[in-house]
């Protein structure tokens, strides 16, 4: 089997197939930046838990993870005949798909793997075909990220500062990233680029992951609380806002990490260009507008307790913890895919 070399994935990829093909190896993103911990997952409940708990997270990364998960579950299956093997894998695919609802990549890649499975007739054939498909999905994501990053670089120049939200870097994708891709590629080419990174309450993907990735790449990163974005924009400290996307509706409305739509409103007010970066597979043809996108709601403990040394809210109160919001298309300067600028018909200009 042709494993992806480090020259393709970059050092320390967030998601890979273990050499024996019997586990998905991930960086446990919940442990960063304190500890770089790798986990090997070989059964469906631990894979579901990894997605739900955001050990692996970011729309493209959970799609790649799910593809490798299906290959692993095929490789470790002890089902005696092909019909039982296929039924069990289809059940696992549905189970994994139910772990998080908003990012379209999870269901897209699971459906792609199921389609491959349905084209097979024997267990050995299915194992080989599913593993090959998972590698193909990973490779395609790397190529799309590179193209997206190249387009991103046409939107900024050396000396610019970019505001980021959540984490749309290599951990959330495969390599370079989408929203962070231009910064990382530009830095590799010697450009002088800086970032203002929103910490991204309540799970702090900006503080814990984006700051870690940009700092490791030698990019000067200034961390701000989410409620500081307005003053940063009003003082002209950033030239653009770059974010990723979890699902794009046909009219260009875009779901991304909670807080993204607020940044878009501010950006419009302060006339800062607001760009969304995502592979074209993030466009969901079944969502006419953002109103059709299911927004994940998560437990209130993430607001009250997580990342604090002690609880920071009284017991007995209510919480509302939507994990994503939808940015209306009219607030988005452009959506950038691997093909260039997307127009509202989902085709590139
Ligand atoms: O809840 P998360 O951390 O999975 O949310 C991730 C985001 O919102 C990212 O911005 C999005 O997936 C794009 S990643 C390239």
Describe this entry's structure for a reader.
- The protein has 349 residues and is α/β, with parallel strands linked by helices.
- It is 38% helix and 14% strand.
- The chain is built from eleven helices and 13 strands.
- It has helices at residues 6-9, 44-52, 59-76, 82-97, 104-118, 123-153, 181-188, 205-216, 229-234, 260-270, 301-304; strands at 15-17, 24-27, 38-41, 161-164, 194-198, 221-224, 240-243, 247-248, 254-257, 274-277, 324-327, 334-337, 340-342.
- The strands form three sheets. The chain has a seven-stranded mixed sheet with strand order 6-5-4-7-10-12-13, sandwiched between helices. Strands 1-2-3 form a three-stranded antiparallel sheet. Strands 8-9-11 form a three-stranded antiparallel sheet, covered by helices on one side.
- Helix 3 runs antiparallel to helix 4 (82-97), helix 3 packs parallel to helix 5 (104-118) and helix 5 runs antiparallel to helix 6.
Mean pLDDT: 96
Could you tell me which ligands this complex binds, including any ions or cofactors?
5-S-methyl-1-O-phosphono-5-thio-D-ribulose
Helix content: 25-40%
Instruction: Give the percentage of residues in beta strands.
Output: 5-15%
Shape: globular
SSE ordering: HEEEHHHHHEHEHEHEEEHEHEEE
List key phrases describing it.
single chain; alpha/beta; binds 5-S-methyl-1-O-phosphono-5-thio-D-ribulose; seven-stranded mixed sheet; 349 residues; three-stranded antiparallel sheet
Topology of this protein?
Layout: H1 6-9, E1 15-17, E2 24-27, E3 38-41, H2 44-52, H3 59-76, H4 82-97, H5 104-118, H6 123-153, E4 161-164, H7 181-188, E5 194-198, H8 205-216, E6 221-224, H9 229-234, E7 240-243, E8 247-248, E9 254-257, H10 260-270, E10 274-277, H11 301-304, E11 324-327, E12 334-337, E13 340-342
Parallel strand pairs: 4-5, 4-7, 5-6, 7-10, 10-12
Antiparallel strand pairs: 1-2, 2-3, 8-9, 9-11, 12-13
Helix pairs in contact: 3-4, 3-5, 3-6, 4-5, 5-6, 6-7
The structure holds 5-S-methyl-1-O-phosphono-5-thio-D-ribulose.
């Amino acid at each position: 089997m042709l494993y992806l070399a480090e020259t393709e994935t970059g050092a320390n990829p967030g998601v890979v197939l273990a050499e024996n093909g019997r586990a998905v190896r991930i960086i446990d993103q919940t442990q960063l930046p304190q500890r770089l911990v790798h986990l090997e997952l070989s059964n469906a409940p631990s894979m579901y838990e990894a997605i739900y708990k955001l050990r692996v997270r970011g729309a493209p990364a959970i799609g790649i993870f799910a593809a490798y998960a299906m290959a692993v579950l095929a490789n470790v299956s002890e089902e005696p005949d092909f019909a039982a093997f296929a039924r069990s894998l289809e059940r696992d695919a549905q189970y994994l798909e139910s772990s998080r609802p908003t990012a379209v990549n999870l269901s897209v890649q699971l459906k792609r793997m199921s389609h491959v499975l349905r084209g097979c007739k024997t267990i050995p054939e299915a194992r080989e075909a599913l593993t090959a498909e998972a590698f193909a999905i990973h490779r395609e994501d790397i190529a799309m990220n590179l193209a997206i990053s190249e387009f991103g670089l046409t939107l900024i120049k050396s000396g610019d500062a970019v505001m980021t939200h959540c984490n749309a870097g290599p951990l959330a994708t495969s390599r370079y990233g989408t929203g962070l891709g231009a910064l990382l590629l530009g830095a590799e080419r010697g450009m002088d680029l800086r970032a203002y990174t929103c910490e991204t309450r309540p799970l702090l993907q900006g503080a814990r992951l984006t700051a870690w990735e940009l700092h490791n790449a030698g990019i000067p990163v200034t961390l701000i609380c989410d409620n500081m974005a307005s003053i940063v924009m009003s003082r002209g400290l950033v030239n653009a806002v770059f974010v990723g996307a979890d699902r794009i509706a046909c009219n260009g409305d875009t779901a991304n990490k909670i807080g993204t739509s607020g940044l878009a409103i501010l950006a419009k007010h302060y006339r800062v260009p607001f760009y969304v970066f995502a592979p074209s597979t993030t466009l969901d043809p079944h969502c006419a507008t953002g109103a059709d996108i299911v927004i994940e709601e998560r437990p209130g403990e993430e607001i009250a307790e997580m990342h604090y040394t002690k609880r920071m809210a009284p017991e007995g109160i209510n919480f509302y913890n939507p994990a994503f919001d939808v940015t209306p298309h009219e607030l988005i300067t452009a959506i950038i895919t691997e093909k260039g600028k997307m127009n509202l018909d989902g085709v590139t200009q």
